[in-house]
């Protein structure tokens, strides 16, 4: 062992040289300095040594944790066409994260691509909590509510909110619902419903059990605490019923036909408000806010389509008069300036089911949350990129991709609000912590809806009457088997355009055959084959042939061919019904 410039050298490299002009052979000894890089540093350098993924790579340590472990790295590389492509960057980031695993401290790594320079930084991030209990830190009675005159008009709508920055206008109306990761750390994700919001309506996507109802519950509780009333629509009947009688929630609508009447009343309200604002010289910011939450929107819109096609004459007339799908389009585009906001929950992002003009309708839902691992098409529809939100850990309940405060997609943990139903049967299921959370969230004041139209006022009054008489209709259960199912809404899990049907899906048939649906026997059939127009595109005119095999007396099952246009909606069976079929 010897020393070279102060370093201990255990190995030497010998280089031989020959100079013919001087007839000399030189033998030079160079020290091989020991590799002092950590195993992780070496691994990172070796990851790119073949020059395939990145070229001319140098890896350096950027910072150390207090215990001396390496806490961040910088990777310099030679920029190429491939390194500029989002999909390649995403793949490489995933490979780096997989190679790095978990840091000694238990923290996870994050990968950041510098926007302008060919530098990747690897740094540590605190893992997002896997569960965030949603509760209020101060008594609800101490929260400020907007000062409104008897018409509901606010001269100064923007009240300070505890913890808010008074220099940021409208923060009272930043409705938080999740913790999300951004470059500056974990922050609250919120829906900005103030009049200066560039994302006035909210879209929530999540499959059954994905946490959509929890997210909407979190949002509704935050809205009512802020003195913003909510009317909910829940065609599945079991998601938002907990809000019946909740302060600030004057109505929850369950029947699709009543939901159509509600959309009509809301549309009339929007026009009445606009007229009032014009005559009284009021601005959007003066108007009292009202939020409509439409859960399971595709089921609702498919039910409307079915009613329009094969309902009773009376039902058809209601759908025609209310034209809910057309009026929703108008509401989405115009309601914001009349103080009305929409939150819509759907099972999957779909390009077609918002109607013909889907693109622009979807564009108005700029506050977005996706509670599931998205397909690449779904990711593109939600975030404009095929790779965003695709690696959500499905095992963590409430894990989502949401719009962060700057509007970009970010990984998030949705705050958990247990059921807020104050029925003793619901409360008996809650733990002490959950009871504390829901009690803290309950507003101490009931916020009214200021109705500028006779239609909305009448609608709410009728709904409240219906709810009080609902108990009269309740009867003791009778056992009914799948083959005698009579009610549609209770047994469907989702509705999708025929163009999106795939082999193996269980669909409900028999709805169109019998105009009087009460007493109709529904059947559940499994899709065996789907044939689309030759180029595979789904258009309203496009024909979709679907083959289902049905029982027959012969040896082989008969194949029934159903024909749909690409935008016809088809109901999917709920799991229990499909299993029974
Ligand atoms: N943010 C969350 N944090 C913790 N647990 C959650 C969260 N969201 C949902 N869960 C858990 O997942 C369960 C299902 O959630 P939720 O009822 O919201 O699903 P959903 O999407 O509404 O399903 P469906 O479409 O069938 O109504 C909840 O009862 C709860 O236990």
Automatic annotation (TrEMBL):
Keyword terms: ATP-binding, Nucleotide-binding
Pfam families, alphabetized: FtsK_SpoIIIE (PF01580)
UniProt cross-references to InterPro entries, sorted A to Z: FtsK/SpoIIIE/SftA, FtsK_dom, P-loop_NTPase
Protein residues bound to ATP: 206-213
The keyword ATP-binding is assigned to this record: yes
GO MF annotations, alphabetized: ATP binding; DNA binding
FtsK domain sequence ranges: 186-380
PANTHER family the record matches: DNA TRANSLOCASE FTSK, SPORULATION PROTEIN RELATED
The protein's name in its UniProt record: Putative FtsK/SpoIIIE family protein
Species the sequence originates in: Rhodococcus wratislaviensis NBRC 100605
